[in-house]
Amino acid sequence: MKRLFTLLLFLGALTSLMGLDGHPEEELIQLNTENLNQSSGMYLPANQTMRINVIGQGVAPTMTISPAQAYAMAKRAATVEAYRLIAEKVKGVHVEGKDVLRNMMIKSTDVNLYVSAMIRNANVVETKFENGLCEVEMEVSLNHRDFH
Fold first, then answer.
1. What's this model's pTM, rounded to 2 decimal places?
2. Cα–Cα distance for residue pair 145/148, rounded to 1 Å
3. What's the rounded Cα separation, in Å, for the pair 104 and 106?
4. DSSP symbol at 131
5. Dist CA 22 CA 15 (whole Å)
6. In this structure, what DSSP letter does residue 26 have?
7. Of the residues 19, 24, 127, 128, which has the fewest C-beta atoms closer than 10 A?
8. How confident is the model over 7-12, as a mean pLDDT?
9. Whole-Å CA distances, 80 to 33, 131, 134
10. Which of 148, 112, 138, 121 is nearest to 23 (CA)?
11. CA–CA separation, 105 vs 10, rounded Å?
12. Which one, of 67, 83, 78, lies nearest residue 5 by Cα?
């Protein structure tokens, strides 16, 4: 179960890096070059607020004691993924890769993704559960002082 969750988390990170999931959305704001905080990687004027909306997904496990437990586990997985998606948008993703060669052929490839951020004031907008899939829509509003 733990391996499955880790694999799903890794695949979610990889697909959102490639832009395949289509869920994270940002409200675009007009940016100018004055009063920007460039040290954090986010370019946000001092007088603007940016809202980030994401949808995290979690799959209900089949080997549970009750349907309520399956729902709770899927909801928690979806919430964790939503937080991860917000962290990726705000702080970016650190990617490490390694190829092992033998006889001039790739024997194995390892790719590790890391994200680290403190997320505050994120709000759950909507939670849906259908056919064993839980989706949690979450949003957070950021302003210039959040990056100091």
1. 0.65
2. 6
3. 7
4. T
5. 9
6. E
7. 19
8. 44
9. 34, 20, 12
10. 138
11. 25
12. 78
Contact criterion met (CB below 8 Å) for 12 and 81: yes
Mean pLDDT is lowest, of 24-28, 49-53, 85-89, for: 24-28
Residue with structure tokens 């939670």?
A: 127
Q: What is the dihedral of CA 46, 48, 49, 52, to 10 degrees?
A: -100
Extract long-range pairs of 40-43: CB within 8 Å, 24+ residues apart.
Answer: 40/91, 40/147, 41/91, 41/92, 42/90, 42/142, 42/147
Residue-wise pLDDT tens digits, 27-73: 334 333 333 344 445 566 777 888 999 999 999 999 999 999 999 99
Q: Which amino acid is at 104?
A: M
Q: Name the pairing type of β-strands 49-59 and 133-143.
A: antiparallel
- The model's confidence at residue 84, banded by pLDDT at 50, 70 and 90, is very high
CA distance 44 to 145: 10
3-state secondary structure 54-110: EEEEEECCCCCCCHHHHHHHHHHHHHHHHHHHHHHHHHCCEEEEEEEEECCEEEEEE
Helix axes 67-91, 2-18, angle to 10 degrees: 40
